[in-house]
Amino acid sequence: MEILATLLQVLAQTLEIYSLVLIIRVLLSWFPVDWSNPVLSTVSSITDPYLNIFRGIIPPLGGLDLSAILAFIALSLLQQLLTSSSVAVYNSSFSYYN
Q1: Which pTM was predicted?
Q2: C-alpha angle 37/49/61, rounded to 5°?
């Protein structure tokens, strides 16, 4: 059971890293940048498919892309779910052995 708890923690940490990359992407969208740069192109290719899901739900309003807010909320909820599940699995395996 500890392996499952560790896996859930790793997934939660991965989502935290993805959140940071997503923040970078959103901040870069506020400035004129050259997206042909390999680093920026990679950031865009990693984050745009996820953001496009929410762009289909909330279209841009007056030039503002509010879909990123919904994307961050969904990512945060999933991260919290994984973290709490990891704690629950770890606690249940700990109480099983005691």
Answers
A1: 0.83
A2: 95
